[in-house]
Automatic annotation (TrEMBL), chain A:
Domain Electron transfer flavoprotein alpha/beta-subunit N-terminal: 23-212
Name of the protein this chain belongs to: Electron transfer flavoprotein subunit beta
Family to which the UniProt record says this protein belongs: Belongs to the ETF beta-subunit/FixA family.
SUPFAM superfamilies: Adenine nucleotide alpha hydrolases-like
A Pfam family the protein falls into: ETF
Organism of derivation: Maribacter aquimaris
Claim: Transport is one of the keywords in the record: yes
Gene3D superfamilies per the UniProt record, alphabetical: HUPs
CDD domains named among the record's database cross-references: ETF_beta
Record's keyword terms, sorted: Electron transport, Transport
TrEMBL record, chain B:
Family under the similarity heading: Belongs to the ETF alpha-subunit/FixB family.
Record bears the keyword Transmembrane: no
Boundaries of every Electron transfer flavoprotein alpha/beta-subunit N-terminal domain copy: 3-189
Annotated PANTHER family: ELECTRON TRANSFER FLAVOPROTEIN ALPHA (PTHR43153), ELECTRON TRANSFER FLAVOPROTEIN SUBUNIT ALPHA, MITOCHONDRIAL (PTHR43153:SF1)
Pfam family, one: ETF
Top-level taxon: Bacteria
Transmembrane segments: none
InterPro entries: DHS-like_NAD/FAD-binding_dom, ETF_a/b_N, ETF_a/FixB, ETF_asu_C, Rossmann-like_a/b/a_fold
The keyword Electron transport appears for this protein: yes
Name the UniProt record assigns to this protein: Electron transfer flavoprotein subunit alpha/FixB family protein
Keywords on record: Electron transport, Transport
C-alpha cells in the first residue's frame, strides 16, 4: 500500500494571531510553525500502516521553502519521502489541484489529509482532492483499517459516530481519534539524522486558479470585562443570564 | 437565476441550521435581486421554509437517500443548481454538510468559503466575512469564480423570518449506484439529547472536576438547561470523557448562545474553539484563570459547591417560569 499524507505548515496552536501590511497579511513574526494537528494524527496512523502492514509513506505539502522544517519533521517522524509543491497555498481549491497532480504522478492508494487546517479552517482540501481524483472519501475520519482493497472506517458525526465501508483508492479527512494524543511521536535523534538523508523533492506547481482571495483580515473586537458574581449568590447569575444576557 | 440553499433535515424534520441557511440565502437573493430556492431531501413540512423567505422548494423523496451519503447528496444538489441556473449556493456547517460541500464545490467549479458569519458585504466583487485561525481572526474573502458556494457558520447570521408563499415541486434527480461506493453500515448516535453542534446551551467540564466520577453534576446541570455536555482537551486525552465531547481548536467548535465552562482554566486553544459562543460563563477556583478574561460572567469558587447551588437555583427559576 502506498500512502500519501498531506501536511499543512501552520502556526502552533498557542500562537497569538496578528496581521500586517495594512491587515492584508498574517504576521508570521515570532510565530512557531508546526505540522497541522489534524494532519499529524493522520501521519501517525500512517506510521502504524508502515510498521504493521509494510506501507510506503510519502508526505506532500504545498508551500514555499519556509515550510521545509515542518516537512523534515514529518520525515523524522518516519515518512519515507517528501514532496513540496513550490507555491504559496493561496486557497483550498488551488491546494487541492496541486495535490491532485502529486497523487496522479505518485500512484497512491490511500491519501490522508487533516479534516481542516487550523490556520484558514476551510475544511475543503480532502473532499476537493477526492472529487478531482474521483476517489472514495471519508471525512472527519476517526478510525481506519485496510484489508487488501477493503476499508473499514469510522466517521465522527454530530452527536455520535458512523461506521463506513469502502474501498481503496481512498481519501480521508483525518482528525484526533485516528490515533490518540499520547500516540503522537516526538522525533528522536536517529529519526532527525535519517530525515536529512531522505528525499525531499521540490516540484513546480501546475497551472491552477485560486477560487478565492483573502482581501483583508481583522482581529476580534476586544472583550469587555467579566462580570463577577459572588459564589454565595448564585441566584444572581441565573438572574443575569435571564434578564441581561437573555440566554435562558 | 436564483440562489439555491440546501436545507438539511433529519428523520424528515428540518434542522435549525436549515432555517439559518435559508435566512442567509434569502438575504443574498435580496442583494442580487432574485429569489431563493431550497433543495430538501426526504423532508416533511417543506412549506415551513416559506417563513424564511424561500419561494420554491425542490423536494427529493427517495428511499435510497434515507441515510446520508455525501457523494449522492452533493450530486443531487449540483444537479439542482444546474437546473436552476443558481450562481450562489448556500449550505450550513453541520458535520454532514461539511462533508458534502467540498464535493459540491468541485463538481460546480465553485469558489467555496467556509465559516461565513455575515451577509455578503458586496456582491460585485463578491466578498464575505468568515472566521479564520480558529476564531482568532476574521477574513474578508473575495470569491473569484462565476458560481459561489457559501458555508454559513452555525448561530452566526441567525434566523431571520420573512414570510412568503412557497411552492413545493418534486425533484427526481439521477441517483447512481456508483455514489454508494462509500456506504454507511452503522450509526451510533445519541438520541433525544442536544448535540454540541446544534445546542443553544453547552455545559463543559475541565480538569478542575478531578475525575470522570464527578460528571454527574455536569450532566444534571445540562439536563436542567436542555444543554449539550462538552469537555476540555486534557479531559478527553485522559479518557474521562469521549472524544466527541472535546471542544476547542483541535476538537469541535462551539457556537452556542450560552457556554458554561466549569473547572476549565481557558488555554488559548480552548478559548479559540468556544469564542463564537454568544455568552460565556466561567466557574473556577482560580481568579487568575485565563478564562475570566474571555468570559462575560464568572464565579470564583469551588465547582463542587457552586454547581449544585446553580442547579437548585435553575430548577427554581424553571418552576417559576414554566
Amino acid at each position: 500500500m502506498k500512502i500519501l499524507v498531506c501536511i499543512s505548515n501552520v502556526p502552533d496552536t498557542t500562537s497569538k494571531i496578528n496581521f500586517t501590511d495594512g491587515n492584508t497579511k498574517f504576521d508570521t513574526n515570532g510565530v512557531q510553525f508546526v505540522i497541522n494537528p489534524n494532519d499529524e494524527f493522520g501521519l501517525t496512523r500512517a506510521m502504524w500502516f508502515k510498521e504493521k502492514q509494510g506501507a510506503t509513506v510519502h508526505v506532500a505539502s504545498v508551500g514555499g521553502s519556509s515550510a521545509e522544517p515542518t516537512i523534515r519533521k514529518a520525515l523524522a517522524i518516519g515518512a519515507d519521502e517528501a514532496i513540496r509543491v513550490d507555491a504559496e497555498p493561496t486557497d483550498g481549491y488551488f491546494v487541492a489541484q496541486q495535490l491532485a497532480a502529486v497523487v496522479k504522478n505518485g500512484g497512491y492508494d490511500l491519501i490522508i489529509a487533516g479534516r481542516e487546517s487550523i490556520d484558514y479552517n476551510g475544511g475543503m482540501v480532502p473532499g476537493m482532492l477526492a472529487t478531482l481524483l474521483d476517489m472514495n472519501f471519508v471525512n472527519t475520519c476517526i478510525n481506519i483499517e485496510v484489508d487488501g482493497n477493503n476499508v473499514k472506517a469510522m466517521r465522527e458525526i454530530d452527536g455520535g459516530k458512523e461506521k463506513i465501508e469502502t474501498t481503496l483508492p481512498l481519501v480521508i479527512g483525518g482528525q484526533k481519534g485516528l490515533v490518540e494524543e499520547s500516540d503522537l511521536r516526538i522525533p528522536n535523534m536517529r529519526g532527525i539524522m535519517m530525515a536529512r538523508k531522505k528525499a525531499l523533492n521540490v516540484v513546480a506547481p501546475i497551472d491552477a486558479i485560486a477560487a478565492t482571495t483573502d482581501i483583508k483580515f481583522e482581529q476580534p473586537a476586544p472583550k469587555g470585562a467579566v462580570k463577577l458574581v459572588d459564589a454565595d449568590n448564585v441566584g444572581e447569575l441565573v438572574n443575569l443570564l435571564h434578564n441581561e444576557a437573555k440566554v435562558i | 437565476m436564483s440562489v439555491l440553499v440546501y436545507t438539511e433535515s433529519e428523520n424528515g424534520k428540518f434542522k435549525k441550521n436549515a432555517f439559518e441557511a435559508a435566512s442567509y440565502a434569502y438575504e443574498v437573493a435580496q442583494q442580487l435581486g432574485t429569489t431563493a430556492t431550497a433543495i430538501s431531501i426526504n423532508a416533511n413540512e417543506n412549506e415551513s421554509l416559506g417563513n424564511y423567505g424561500i419561494t420554491k422548494v425542490l423536494n427529493v423523496s427517495n428511499d435510497k437517500l434515507s441515510t446520508f451519503n455525501a457523494k449522492a447528496y452533493a450530486n443531487i444538489i449540483a444537479e439542482a443548481a444546474k437546473n436552476e441556473g443558481a450562481k450562489v449556493i448556500v449550505v450550513s456547517s453541520s458535520s454532514d454538510t461539511k462533508f458534502l460541500a467540498p464535493l459540491l464545490a468541485t463538481k460546480l467549479e465553485a469558489g467555496m468559503v467556509s465559516n461565513v458569519v455575515a451577509a455578503p458585504e458586496s456582491t460585485s466583487p463578491f466578498i464575505v466575512k468568515r472566521t479564520v485561525f480558529s476564531n482568532k481572526g476574521f477574513a474578508h474573502t473575495q470569491i473569484n469564480t462565476e458560481i459561489k458556494l457559501i458555508a454559513v457558520s452555525n448561530n452566526a447570521f441567525g434566523l431571520v423570518e420573512n414570510t412568503t408563499s412557497t411552492t413545493v415541486e418534486d425533484f427526481s434527480p439521477t441517483v447512481s449506484d456508483a455514489d454508494f461506493s462509500t456506504k454507511s453500515t452503522e450509526i451510533d448516535k445519541v438520541v433525544g439529547k442536544a448535540t454540541i453542534a446544534d445546542a443553544d446551551i453547552v455545559v463543559s467540564g475541565g480538569r478542575g472536576l478531578k475525575g470522570p466520577e464527578n460528571w454527574g453534576m455536569i450532566e444534571e446541570l445540562a439536563d436542567v438547561l436542555g444543554a449539550a455536555t462538552a469537555c476540555s482537551k486534557p479531559v478527553s486525552d485522559m479518557g474521562w470523557r469521549p472524544h466527541s465531547e472535546h471542544v476547542g481548536q483541535t476538537g469541535k467548535p462551539v457556537a452556542s448562545n450560552l457556554y458554561i465552562a466549569i473547572g476549565i482554566s481557558g488555554a488559548i486553544q480552548h478559548l479559540a474553539g468556544v469564542s463564537a459562543s454568544k455568552t460565556k460563563v466561567v466557574i473556577n477556583t482560580d481568579p487568575e484563570a485565563p478564562f475570566f478574561k474571555a468570559a462575560d460572567y464568572g464565579i470564583v469558587g469551588d465547582a463542587f459547591e457552586v454547581v449544585p447551588k446553580l442547579i437548585e437555583k435553575l430548577k427554581e427559576f424553571k418552576a417559576q417560569n414554566a
